[in-house]
Specification:
single chain, 304 residues, alpha/beta, 3-stranded antiparallel sheet
Length: 304
């Protein structure tokens, strides 16, 4: 009986603690070890039991492995019951607070990283995309509209280009230094352009504020790209367009070490599934060869 396997797997305090964490976030093994305060071999053994019985799923990304609670099938249904049953458990809440603290510090570190490279950001992007004119590819696919938003705008390179198609353009980024660089870039050409500081997963924007949105080489930095896509869906009007430009799935660990990529690109299937789950309909897909043997994928979708 499948249910017996579930109950056996959770008849252990450590595994119940693990499931409690992974019901809320996808975490790397290193992050789990930091929260739990246990050795990696012990943690890995418990993760294997939970994965083998169907309550967890793993995702390998280069040399890293990430775990999360299953969201489909019978395991997901059982997880929903567990989530409801353990809600309010004060002992498990301690783990949750520890996890949130670690993730918050990771976000701070990422902001510090982007602050430190802000002045070199345009060159760094060029080192990856080479001669591909991403701005032109995006420009060609944005229809004339009222409000467009560049989500993760960095130094603002794309903002005046989008402004040619939109009456107003909003640039959102979480790095103060990146936005300072954007202000300098736009000093003589800021009419109709507004900069806002904020997290992609919690955008400083109203519901249905924009007619078009762009993620230009941003999603691979997010811990939860699907949450970013969901937020884009929240701020877009029905019929609004979302353009995503990002790396195809690859195994170049140097991108993680040198440029702080959380994800080593994405498969087309994954991105299109996130778009569908977020209430988008695919309109166009294109792929381009760039440096280091990498490929860049471009997705155009429409908010239902």
């Amino acid at each position: 009986m499948e249910s017996v396997g579930y109950f056996k797997a959770l008849a252990d305090q450590t595994r119940l603690r693990l499931l409690n964490l992974l019901l809320r976030h996808e975490l790397s093994v290193n992050e789990i070890v930091s929260v739990m305060g246990m050795g990696q071999s012990r943690i890995s053994r418990h993760l294997k039991i939970l994965t083998d019985c169907g309550l967890l799923k793993s995702r390998r990304d280069g040399l890293w492995v990430f775990y999360s609670a299953c969201r489909e099938g019978r395991g997901a249904s059982f997880n929903d019951l567990v989530r409801e049953f353990i809600a309010g458990d004060t002992d498990l809440a301690v783990d949750y607070a520890m996890m949130e603290g670690i993730l918050k510090e990771e976000r701070r570190e990422k902001t510090r990283f982007f602050d430190s490279i802000a002045s070199d950001w345009d060159k760094i992007k060029q080192d990856i995309v080479g001669g591909l004119d991403i701005s032109k590819e995006i420009m060609d696919r944005i229809a004339r509209c009222g409000v467009a938003v560049d989500l993760g705008c960095g130094t603002g390179e794309l903002l005046p280009i989008i402004r040619q198609k939109a009456k107003k353009v909003i640039g959102v980024d979480k790095s103060p230094k990146m936005l300072e660089e954007a202000e300098r870039r736009l000093a003589a050409n800021s009419r109709g352009i507004e900069l806002r500081i904020g997290e992609i997963e919690h955008l400083p924007m109203r519901d249905r504020e924009a007619d078009a949105a762009v993620f230009n080489m941003v999603l691979h930095h997010l811990s939860s790209p699907d949450a970013g896509i969901d937020e884009a869906g929240r701020v877009l009007k029905s019929g609004g367009s979302l353009i995503i430009v990002d790396l195809d799935k690859h195994q170049d660990e140097e991108m993680r070490k040198k440029y702080d990529h959380r994800w080593l690109g994405f498969t087309r299937r994954n991105v299109e599934r996130w778009l569908s789950d977020g209430g988008f309909t695919m309109d166009e897909f294109a792929q381009f060869d760039v440096k280091r043997g990498l490929k860049i994928n471009l997705y155009v979708s429409v908010k239902k």
